[in-house]
TrEMBL record:
Residues 1-229 form the SEC63 domain. It is a multi-pass membrane protein. PANTHER family: SEC63 DOMAIN-CONTAINING, U5 SMALL NUCLEAR RIBONUCLEOPROTEIN 200 KDA HELICASE. This is DExH-box ATP-dependent RNA helicase DExH12. It comes from Datura stramonium (Jimsonweed). The keyword Oxidoreductase does not apply.
């Protein structure tokens, strides 16, 4: 734990680092580098939560220690490794595993109710009739499950020096060529519809693209969906 001037310097570094990472994502995306953009997004999560990607995701929860996270991972019957694993446990089983006081369990429940649980669906607006070189429009629908009608509120991040709102990225990429095709920054409360536009390849054939939904603040809630895109031959104009 840093104190005095070092603690103040650390706060400034953390705030600047997050802004810098946001700018890095913009620059990397403009160059079309998929893997590097996803890595920068994960760095944003780690900065906000004050932990490494290799750490247990359960350490984001209040009152959790490395020892308790290890105990959950070694839980008999089913390993508990994510926030969602903990949510879906039975109440009695969860109480027995955590061995916490009622106020502590209430803190855990409050965190879990606000932890992002988002249903994502997507559709091609042209009905999938895509020809080589066409512009492709993908409509993504996001709907957040908020328990009891509560709002998402600021991110729970005790290691971060100020209140922070969640941010998200939607990304379409080609993992085979490491090419980022489309990206959009998203702020989500309850339900949103977002359109992503990108160009179909210049040659006909089947391509597999991946849609990523990445959080900038929490680990363990990102989503990805791989889907094949059937690209037909380009229309040939008749000059006669």
């Amino acid at each position: 734990m840093l104190r005095g001037n070092l603690a103040s310097d650390q706060q400034e570094v953390l705030l600047s680092a997050n802004r810098l990472v946001q700018a890095m994502v913009d620059v990397i995306s403009s160059n079309g580098w998929l893997n590097l953009a996803l890595l920068a997004m994960e760095v944003s999560q780690m900065i906000t939560q004050g932990m490494w990607k290799c750490d247990s995701w359960l350490l984001q929860l209040p009152h959790f220690t490395k020892e308790l996270a290890k105990k959950c991972q070694e839980n008999q019957g089913k390993s508990i490794e994510t926030v969602f694993d903990l949510v879906y446990m039975g109440d009695n089983e969860r109480h027995e595993l955590l061995q916490m006081s009622e106020p502590q369990l209430m803190d855990i429940a409050h965190f879990c109710n606000r932890f992002p649980k988002v249903d994502l669906t997507y559709d091609l607006l042209d009905g999938g009739n895509v020809r080589a070189g066409d512009d492709v429009s993908l409509q993504v629908t996001l709907e957040r499950d908020l328990e009891g009608g509560i709002e998402s509120g600021p991110v729970f991040a005790p290691s971060y020096p100020k209140a922070k709102e969640e941010g998200w990225w939607l990304v379409v990429g080609d993992t085979k060529s490491n090419q980022l095709l489309a990206i959009k920054r998203v702020t989500l409360q309850r339900k949103s519809k977002i359109k992503l536009d990108f160009a179909a390849p210049a040659e006909a054939g089947t391509r597999t693209y991946t849609l990523y939904f990445m959080c900038d603040s929490y680990l363990g809630c990102d989503q990805e969906f791989a889907s094949a895109l059937d690209v037909k031959e380009a229309m040939v104009e008749n000059d006669s």
